[in-house]
Specification:
Elements (H helix, E strand, L loop, with lengths): L1 H12 L7 H10 L13 H10 L2 H26 L2
């Protein structure tokens, strides 16, 4: 939280908050119990199930985007991991 706030203030207002020690201490106390959520990860079987079962009328554009992204990632991994 501190780094995001610091970056936003520097970029938008040109204010460096690293000098405000009380603010830093407050932000550390405020975020002590925060636990970040893990996002779900789709594997190949989930993607194949979606592509096979979802209707084209409603999800055609989403299907096209998923297929393009899937093949781009596969090609990227093959090309850059093998070199």
């Amino acid at each position: 939280m501190y780094s995001m706030l610091k970056l936003c203030l520097i970029v938008h207002n040109n204010v460096d908050i690293s000098k405000f020690l009380k603010l830093i201490a407050f932000l550390k106390r405020a975020t002590y119990h925060h636990k970040p959520k893990k996002s779900g990860v789709l594997d190949d079987t989930h993607i194949a199930k979606f592509l096979g079962e979802a209707s084209n009328c409603s999800y055609l554009m989403t299907k096209v985007q998923k297929v393009n992204k899937y093949f781009f990632i596969k090609i990227f991994n093959i090309f850059f991991r093998s070199h």
